[in-house]
């Protein structure tokens, strides 16, 4: 049965909140919570047009909130140099098509996410039986259809670089999705983890509302390959990050983050993996085609 790893309030890594609900984590790294998910802004305040990058594009209907936050932080009509995706689930690409078109911005993602971003394949069906909580039970209602940004889509290079983000590297962290990536900046230990691990019990409406910090595995109801997800957490824990912004929950940092990640990695099967579930015994994988469905 999945368990939480509690953290101290001192482990929170977010600092000041500006207008439009944008929280600064470092001088050039900030996020805004959009209901159940975070949109992340990489760039210094006042960077201006094409001087910053958006990581993930929120839930459907988030376009105005993301655009307003970007203008507040970077300046009027400031467009990003690019949009980088950790993965293509509905709550990370909700405003993607509209924003990419409006901003005329390239979209960067891992090659294994391409079918979900060019309209050719849908994600495997959610599993409402895992994790408990209302968010899990209603997961069959979440959209799994692909978006189509094929005209702007760029595939992250195999050398691990992130062309619009000098100094950052992408790390393939599959499990939650086949082409899930985390973004890592070694010089200051900053990690954008996406949903490889999260810091709230995403299956629970109460936890999502209160945002009490706790280190968890990826959201259960949309995770399709648990062995791969465990290996991804091991890889991220080995980085020894100083701070982490996740797709869901508040950023965490310092020794509590590292201790929590170590515990999650070492006991991933006991802490994070449900005892039973659609993808526990039969993962959905690229190799046999089960990770991709007809749209």
TrEMBL record:
Enzyme Commission identifier(s): 3.-.-.-
GO MF term set: hydrolase activity
Superkingdom, taxonomy of origin: Bacteria
Top-level EC class as recorded in UniProt: hydrolase
Residue span, Metallo-beta-lactamase domain: 36-248
CDD domains: yflN-like_MBL-fold
Record key words, sorted: Hydrolase
Cleaved signal peptide residues: none
The keyword Hydrolase is annotated on this UniProt entry: yes
Pfam families linked to this entry: Lactamase_B
Name of the protein described by the UniProt record: Metallo-hydrolase YflN
Taxonomic placement: Bacteria, Pseudomonadati, Pseudomonadota, Alphaproteobacteria, Hyphomicrobiales
Gene responsible for this protein: yflN
């Amino acid at each position: 049965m999945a368990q939480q790893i509690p953290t101290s309030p001192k482990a929170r890594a977010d600092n000041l909140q500006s207008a439009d609900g944008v929280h600064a984590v470092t001088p050039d790294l900030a996020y805004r919570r959009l209901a159940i998910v975070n949109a992340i802004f990489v760039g210094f305040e006042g960077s201006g047009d094409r001087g910053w990058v958006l990581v993930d594009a929120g839930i459907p209907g988030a376009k105005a909130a993301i655009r307003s936050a970007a203008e507040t932080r970077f300046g009027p009509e400031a467009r990003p140099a690019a949009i980088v995706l950790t993965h293509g689930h509905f709550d990370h690409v909700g405003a993607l098509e509209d924003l990419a078109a409006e901003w005329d911005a390239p979209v960067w993602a891992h090659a294994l996410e391409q079918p979900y971003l060019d309209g050719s394949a849908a994600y495997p069906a959610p599993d409402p039986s895992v994790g408990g909580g209302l968010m899990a039970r209603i997961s069959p209602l979440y959209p799994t259809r692909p978006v189509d940004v094929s005209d702007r889509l760029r595939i992250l290079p195999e050398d691990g670089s992130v062309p619009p983000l000098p100094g950052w590297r992408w790390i393939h962290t599959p499990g939650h999705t086949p082409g899930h990536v985390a973004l890592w900046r070694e010089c200051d230990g900053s990690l954008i983890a996406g949903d490889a691990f999260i810091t709230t019990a995403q299956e629970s409406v109460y936890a999502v509302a209160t945002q009490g910090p706790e280190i968890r595995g990826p959201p259960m109801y949309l995770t399709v390959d648990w062995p791969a997800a465990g290996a991804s957490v091991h890889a991220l824990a080995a980085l020894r990050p100083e701070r982490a912004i996740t797709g869901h929950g508040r950023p965490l940092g310092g020794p509590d983050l590292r201790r929590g990640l170590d515990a999650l990695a070492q006991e991933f099967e006991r802490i994070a993996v449900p005892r039973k579930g659609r993808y526990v015994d039969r993962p959905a994988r690229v190799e046999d085609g089960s990770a991709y469905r007809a749209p």
